[in-house]
Amino acid sequence: MHMHLFNFTSVKLHVTLLLGMCFAVTVSVAGQTDLSVSSQGVEGQTVLPLTLSGAVLMAQGSSPRAKLASTRLSNRYWSYRSTLADFKPQINLSGTLPLLNRSIEPIVLPDGDEAFISRSLMRNSVGVNISQDIALTGGTLFANTSLERLDIFKQGPDPGRTSYLSTPISVGYRQNISGYNALKWTKLLAPLSYQEAQRQYQEDREDLALGAAARFFAVLSAQLNLEAAQIRKTNADTLFAVSKGRFEVGRIAETELLQIELGALNAITEVEQARVDLQRNAETLRNFLGIAEAVSFELEPPTLIPDFHVNADTALYHAEQNRSEIIGFRRRLLQAEEQLVAAKAASGMSGDLFMTFGLAQSAPGLSEAYQDPLNNQLLTLGLSVPIADFGKRRARREVAQSNSELEALNVAQERVSLEQNVLLLVRQFDLLRNNISLAKRAFDVSERALDITRKRYLIGKIGITQLNLAIQEQNKARVLYANALQRFWIAYYELRLNTLYDFHTGKALRNEVKY
User: Fold this and answer.
1) Which residues lie below 8 Å from residue 68, measured CB to CB, with a gap of 6+?
2) Integer angstrom CA distances of residue 508 from 57, 69, 419
3) Residue 37 — very low, low, confident or very high, per pLDDT cuts 50/70/90?
4) pTM for the whole structure
5) From CA 39, how far away is CA 16, in angstroms rounded?
6) Is the pLDDT confidence value at 41 over 60?
7) What strand order describes the sheet that includes 46-51?
8) Which of 23, 225, 411, 504 has the fewest Cβ atoms surrounding its Cβ within 10 A?
9) 350-363 and 374-384 as β-strands: parallel, antiparallel, unpaired?
10) Arithmetic mean of pLDDT, 204-232
11) Rounded distance, CA 1 to CA 440, Å?
12) Are 180 and 346 within 8 A, CB to CB?
């Protein structure tokens, strides 16, 4: 079910981006305004028919800001994928092929003295390492296997020697024992950040829809203002011509004739100013939509108003389910909690545990290097215990505690503001719909009243003051009608932005993006 707004008889609003515009305006005997608009642009210029929904789709699909929003989401997606990869095994191949050393170096002799000895050797090594971060503990489990060959070159009859060092298997574990597990918090926060980015992308798209609607109506309002200025100029010219005849026969005073002539001159200025405003707004719309070429817009006003009811509880529910701020609230509270845990851990004892167990063997031949391998073990525990820091750690802990409490208060206040904004939009929506009907009726009445007043003036029944008042009332009603229409559609897209839900179609506003 829809409500009809404009009742133009076969009217197309044709808006050009160029100054060369020619408008034909006629006034019928019945006093109804018949508007026909034509444009004279550059030869070969594209004429682009455009509806409000078409402008929205164009803004969301190909505008510069749409591409920017898509790029931001892509960046967040690959950042999220990189974080997920951190929790999977990492396999690396390393090697030195070769390391050649021919040099004279100071060497410590068996008796403790040093001497400069000529050295000539080549070392080659290759190894495979696999590691896995453990989110539960925050430690890292690793294993590796490697093989190293050492060639010592000698001068003279000594052919030198070759030896191998093999490590068939070595496993180890590294663990921080301070109590702060960064991996755990990353695993909690990364999915929230990406969900927030996805919802922010949908909000960016709806913000584009809102921006397109605002610019669409700016052009439409400028079009209506130009048409109104053209009508006023035509009426002022007609009135001035009639008044000159009446002045010549002595029926009006010269002061009244001068006042009417001034009105005709002002009407010319209004037309030129309206043209400039129209061109400026049309250029803004073209840039917003990302249209590179010079085009003429053929705007089709939104003649149908969707008839649907918006329930406040339903709007709040969808806002809670869809808005990025809801995910952002949870993320911010978790981040504040993480900072508090980190500050508490830093104020106490800290240390690192490192241990490895492996098998190794060395031999002059490759096959012998893998026979009867020997055990290799390493265990280290490093500790750092604060003794006196004159309150530095405590101060950091108290700051983190205060920041956590402050963030909780900010989140609570922002949640209330979000809910209040949604409720306000819902309350205003039905009022704006009703205002359109009232504004349309007032505009129709003002047009009829102006037509009657103009005819009475032409036959000498009333003076110029009454006619000017009627013209002002008609202009005011026209502006109020156009503003009412604009406010409704802006509110419609604001409601979509704040709930990410289309109450007209009954569907959530989600746009799947695949990479």
Assistant:
1) none
2) 16, 19, 18
3) very low
4) 0.77
5) 6
6) no
7) 13-15, 295-300, 46-51
8) 504
9) antiparallel
10) 90
11) 19
12) yes
